[in-house]
Amino acid sequence: MKLVFASNNQNKIAEIKQMLPKSIELLSLEDIGCTEDIPETSNTIEGNAIIKANYVSEKYGYPCFADDTGLEVETLKGEPGVFSARYAGEQKNADDNMNKLLFNLRDKSNRKAQFKTIIALNINNDQHLFEGIIKGEIISEKRGTKGFGYDPIFVPEGFSTTFAEMEMSEKAKLSHRGIATRKLISLLETL
């Protein structure tokens, strides 16, 4: 089965590709010739995942899934949330985003946070949504060189290491994206 993942983020593609069964050929936006930037105009994580999946399915005709992820920090009333990728500006720079978040948390004792991923799958004229949430906390300094995004400052509950200190396979077992992807795979295996 050929399935498009509506992303050009090579880190996300690699993370999901290693989880999928060999019977599924994962295609990126680049693989199908989609070079335009798909607008993420929703004010919710769910909405943005749906927009991206619908865009590819309608314009290119492939079965497709898209994800959107947000880091939600309790004491900041859910920020950065849907704006996680561009928290510090439209340049979408991970270091700038982390620095802004650490600055905003500088005098806060409550550092509880959660990553939330929604995957929207369009296949066989149906749409399915899958949610993955992992709770944890934001530490005060960056640790680790693996991973991407906010991984160097996020420690999942029950662990002492950040996502950026974990191997990809370990992170995939417990991460928000891993949880949502396993739900996606369960459905694909029934088709």
Automatic annotation (TrEMBL):
CDD domains membership: HAM1 (cd00515)
Cofactor: binding details: Binds 1 Mg(2+) ion per subunit.
Enzyme class per UniProt: hydrolase
One Pfam family from the record: Ham1p_like
Residues annotated for substrate binding in this entry: 7-12, 69, 148-151, 171, 176-177
Cofactor field: Mg(2+)
Subunit structure and binding partners: Homodimer.
Role played: Pyrophosphatase that catalyzes the hydrolysis of nucleoside triphosphates to their monophosphate derivatives, with a high preference for the non-canonical purine nucleotides XTP (xanthosine triphosphate), dITP (deoxyinosine triphosphate) and ITP. Seems to function as a house-cleaning enzyme that removes non-canonical purine nucleotides from the nucleotide pool, thus preventing their incorporation into DNA/RNA and avoiding chromosomal lesions.
Protein name: dITP/XTP pyrophosphatase
Source organism (scientific name): Flavobacterium okayamense
